[in-house]
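[User] Once you have settled down, look closely at the record that follows, and write a paragraph about the fold.
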Amino acid sequence: MSNEASNWRRCSTCKKDIDFHQIYWVCNVSTCNRKRTGTIFCTVSCWEAHVPIMRHRESWAVEKTSPTREAWAREQAAAESASRPATSSSQSSASTAPKRESRRTLIRPASSSSTQASSEIPHDILIVASKMKSYIRAVSGMNTSDTSLDVLSDHVRALCDRAIREAGRDERRTVMGRDFPDPE
């Protein structure tokens, strides 16, 4: 926004102008106060209008005062100068390496050096024990030993490794359902 603006911002509900150094209201819910959404309201009734739309369970309006014209100009200048170096560095790093090459670089080491990768990967249980046990009991009426969780997790890891290789062959960074073998 330029320094010559006649108002600070507009109400998110009624779109009425909110001038500099004027009282306004914001919602206390964090999702309404993010930088990109940043909802503000000229009156409490405008705030109340947004509550059923956003489906807040418990919320309230917080009274605030808009900045002065000079303070707003300083904030804008600081934000503008802070965003310039970040934009130029991200453009330079993007232009140095093609995206396709970086994909290959990221995919190949994971599938080619399995000894290094296996030492860094945690060996956790990948199966929800209660879901597996209830399935086996529902299908067969049998109980399930806890040792079966380790074995089944190893099978899942092998299936995942195969799916990762399939996605890598297609030069994708997303493992999809089609990468897994069909069940027998």
